[in-house]
């Protein structure tokens, strides 16, 4: 079960260091010890070079922390890292965690590494880290793509207009990449490697308490981080509410969603692992499987395509198509039926009880169903003083409260509210020809049952 060649990319033209002591893998995007092609490649290379594998993780803190990340995000991340460290130790792989940027810890530890292995993300900050690493490391660097099914540049060499233009490209390729990944045997254990780890992540709560973070957004009980928890959830889901996903996916009260998005965002489960598990559910209908893979692969990788090929994917001026900006500008002076401050929106203090319930679910549990996310975003556009301010508000609220905020999907979904990956529709006030979503869309599901479900979920949060 070889790792597909298109997942591998050498970032420099040098040979592995002769005198190095280990193969170093920087854990950054794929935060897991299972079904991780970057880790398995590192093990292959370490076995070939007759040395152990050391995995490192740089934890940003304080003012240098990951942009917009808060205690909610860090709690989930640390839970996942604790799970990962335990699984790495069981395989004989070393783990070093320090308060540093990913680039800094990689550069420091690579001084005694035969080879440096990186995984891959597509955000601008990640691209900047990779550039710093290439400039600061003298040994061979290989990057391994493990966060999408089809590597972004393999799927398409340009920014795609919409899902319908990327879909056939992915369908032609994805069978080649939807393959099991066998865990390699670690031949050289890391017991003898003496590297100081500043952080003992075995107690995530203690680590969290020692960090300088925004604590106004609290960790949630609804989701526990880590590959172990992700696979437990996935197994239960596929044996239960997945059956009927094709018809129930747009009904928030039906609980047909898998809730895999936080785990995918933090790299705690592989999209290939999920896709293979979905394909293997014989009791599911063809529609169930196809609908889920559409969301997991086509829609998610359209988002990766967008952030990879768009400079300024997080800014109104550069993230949206010209037609959308033009029509929104033409309607910018229209009277808004309601105007709310960002604080009122965050507290769910609007006239719309269903919107308020969606905002409460997001604010208190870190999640909101995709169907409601679109309604939620369209109403912020309708209730804000300008489209530019609406975009900024939507993105700030999204990134602050969602566990899977600050993700390519998040940046892309927010931009979709304002016309990205869409076409002009019938012209109307405020929206121009950008797609409008009215309260009538809530009639497609039992909105009152959803409100009651949110009340139960939030009560469990305490």
Automatic annotation (TrEMBL):
EC number(s) in its UniProt entry?
4.1.99.3
Cofactor dependency: FAD; (6R)-5,10-methylene-5,6,7,8-tetrahydrofolate
Which organism was this protein described from?
Answer: Methylobacterium gnaphalii
Checking Pfam families in the record gives: DNA_photolyase
Q: Source taxonomy lineage? A: Bacteria, Pseudomonadati, Pseudomonadota, Alphaproteobacteria, Hyphomicrobiales
Q: Which residues cross the membrane?
A: none
- Keyword hit for DNA damage: yes
Which reactions are catalysed by this chain?
Answer: cyclobutadipyrimidine (in DNA) = 2 pyrimidine residues (in DNA)
List this protein's GO terms for biological process.
photoreactive repair
Q: Which residues form the Photolyase/cryptochrome alpha/beta domain?
A: 21-152
Q: What is this protein called?
A: Deoxyribodipyrimidine photo-lyase
Q: Which InterPro entries match?
A: Crypto/Photolyase_FAD-like_sf, Crypto/Photolyase_N_sf, DNA_photolyase_N, Photolyase_Class-2, Rossmann-like_a/b/a_fold
Molecular function in Gene Ontology: deoxyribodipyrimidine photo-lyase activity; DNA binding
């Amino acid at each position: 079960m070889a790792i597909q060649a298109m997942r591998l990319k050498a970032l420099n033209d040098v040979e592995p260091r002769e005198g190095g002591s280990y193969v170093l893998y920087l854990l950054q995007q794929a935060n897991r010890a299972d079904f991780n092609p970057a880790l398995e490649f590192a093990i292959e290379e370490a076995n070939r070079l007759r040395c152990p594998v050391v995995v490192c993780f740089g934890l940003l803190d304080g003012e240098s922390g990951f942009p917009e990340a808060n205690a909610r995000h860090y709690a989930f991340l640390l839970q996942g890292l604790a799970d990962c460290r335990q699984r790495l130790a069981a395989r004989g792989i070393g783990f070093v965690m320090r308060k540093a940027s990913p680039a800094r810890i990689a550069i420091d530890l690579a001084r005694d590494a035969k080879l440096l292995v990186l995984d891959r993300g597509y955000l601008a900050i990640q691209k900047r880290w990779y550039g710093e690493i290439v400039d600061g490391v003298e040994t061979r660097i290989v990057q391994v793509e493990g966060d999408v099914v089809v590597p972004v540049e393999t799927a398409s060499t340009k920014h795609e207009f919409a899902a319908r233009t990327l879909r056939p490209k992915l369908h032609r390729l994805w069978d080649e990449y939807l393959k099991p990944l066998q865990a390699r045997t670690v031949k050289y254990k890391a017991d003898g490697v003496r590297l100081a780890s500043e952080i003992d992540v075995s107690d995530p709560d203690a680590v969290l308490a020692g960090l300088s973070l925004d604590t106004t957004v609290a960790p949630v009980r609804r989701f526990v981080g880590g590959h172990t928890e992700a696979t437990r959830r996935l197994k239960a889901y596929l044996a239960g509410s997945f059956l009927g996903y094709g018809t129930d996916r747009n009904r928030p009260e039906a609980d047909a969603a898998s809730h895999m998005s936080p785990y995918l965002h933090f790299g705690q489960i592989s999209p290939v692992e999920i896709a293979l598990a979905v394909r293997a559910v014989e009791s599911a209908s063809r529609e169930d499987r196809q609908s889920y893979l559409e969301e997991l692969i086509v829609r998610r990788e359209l988002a990766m395509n967008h952030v990879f090929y768009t400079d300024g994917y997080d800014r109104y001026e550069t993230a949206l198509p010209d037609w959308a900006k033009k029509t929104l500008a033409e309607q910018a002076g229209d009277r808004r039926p309601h105007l709310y401050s960002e604080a009122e929106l965050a507290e769910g203090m609007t006239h719309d009880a269903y919107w308020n319930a969606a905002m409460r679910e997001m604010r208190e549990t870190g999640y909101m169903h995709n169907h409601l996310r679109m309604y939620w975003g369209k109403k912020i556009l309708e209730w804000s003083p300008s489209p530019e301010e609406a975009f900024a508000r939507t993105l700030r609220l999204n990134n602050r409260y969602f566990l899977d905020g600050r993700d390519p999907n998040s940046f892309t979904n927010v931009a979709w509210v304002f016309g990205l990956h869409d076409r002009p529709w019938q012209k109307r006030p405020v929206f121009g020809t950008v797609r409008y979503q009215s309260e009538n869309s809530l009639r497609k599901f039992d909105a009152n049952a959803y409100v009651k479900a949110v009340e139960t979920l939030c009560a469990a949060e305490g």
